[in-house]
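re: that chain from earlier
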Amino acid sequence: MADRRLRVIPTAISLIVTFQSALSILGFPAEAYCFGIQYMIFSGILSAAVAMLIVCGVLVPLFYPLKLVSINEYLERRFKSRNVRMFAASLGIASGILFNGAVLFATSSALEAGTGLSLKISVPLVVIVAVTYTALGGMRAVIWTDVFQFVIMVGGMSAIFAKGIIAVGGVGEVFRLAEREGRLNWIDVNPDPRVRHTVWGLTFGMTITALHTFGFTQSSVQRYSAVKSLWKAKLTVFINVPVLMLLMSVNSLLGLVVLAYYATVKCDPIANKDVGNVNQLLPFFVFDIFSKFPGFAGLFLATLYGASLSTISTYLSGTAANTWEDILQWRLAKLTESRKAFINRLLIIVIGALSCTVAFFAAVIPGPIIQVALLLISSFGGPITGMFLLGAISKLANSKGALIGGFFGLAFSLWLLIGSLLMNRRPQLLPSVSVEGCSDAVNDSLAFNYNSSTGFETAGSTVESYWHENVTDVSLTQPNTDELHLLRNFYSISYAWFTLLSTLVTTIIGFVVSLITRNKELEASVDDRYLIRFRNVCGSQRDEEQDKEDGSEEKFSPNVELKKYGTPTQIKADRLLIIDEEDIVKDKAEKQSDNF
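^ sequence. v structure.
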């Protein structure tokens, strides 16, 4: 946690850059170009803002005073079970690797579209760079590198946005053409959960997804816990609200600028097969409009790589920290500090290699890269969110409920994910712009084909069928009306609902199991520090009081007594040994150092 000495502004910038990777730079413009701006309004702005405010007002006051090294340490303390912590850690590690893989694919896809650099080369190259400075520099190096990359990212995106508007003829012309092409689809209130994007799915479903990303991941907690006080931790998160809203809006509006440009020249790069998939629209646009300005295309690539490296390094360090703190440390506590540091660096390398594998897998999943990433991480994000909420809301919840609820939530989400992927349901795109102005020859230097470079064939590889299968005789807001089997309808549920549904399954089953296995003595032993205290959501006075407590409170490790259990806890290896609930009930006076 960098000894809790980091400043607010660089830490806030690092947190911003964490969520402004190639996924956002490529995904938001592609989303707006192909599907309109509804996603930007309700997910990029509304849902993200609500989630960040909840994190700022509710979760930061809960987690910051506990001085967590790993976010999953909270679950062990709350449920007094190491098994709960390890289960949640495993889910978080898998989620981080999947997310990193999606970021790697997005970056490499753009590079291949613009430079012809093979995915087999670019993916390992990005990982090697990120692994090097993450493993050698630690959290302080990652944060200050993020600040530098933020400057590059803002400069590059500003140049592209300005040049695009000038090429089109002004902001007014951008919106006029976007309206003409049907991209200003502000709202869709269809209650059918199979519809890809509606107000309900983007508002409620994506809010829970954003809450998981901003509130229950190691990368987020690791950052705001590195500042000096609770008030500064809240400020670090709060700064992200307007800045992220602005950046997401600009990224989405850039998609409308790209649309307006190709509507003006009457040549849709997707319909004309100039690009292989929708994620390559922005790179193609940049190389198109900056073709007469040497160096600007390189600035874009620097922007893309800078944003990607910041995100990859964040998840590398966070996932490695989770693996060590939550899974390995208990068995390797007697190692020397130098060997522990070596193992942590080795973990970063292994996680980077696994992320490379996921990047190649992401290449075969159809749809914009934003959708691909959310589809992958939602399978693990829902159960994780449900387990944390289960423990933070009520004393009734116990370890049995958390484990069983988390297991069923994971099984449900994987069932839904695998079924959705096997159906191979492609997103329903809006009609393409005119191709009357296109030349007969496709620009071979920019055209993209997975078959030639990676051996994969993606849904985007057959671009012509990608448009016509999703537009002809199919309404954007209405799913197929053919009689479908019940399971097929279930598998057709929009990805926007995945995290919310799995969170509900985890929480509901967890509460039911906890109620069945209820033990009032255990409930009484739950420390109020591990519960959400809504009366303390706001108020600087409370923050000041808590900061004073933090200065005198010992870390949750040696020489701590759980007086409610009736006996002091035995300490081993400078860590608090948590005792299983069953042993507490059977005999509170037994030696707890023998429990594990």
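Confidence is low (pLDDT under 50) at residues 441-483, 551-596.
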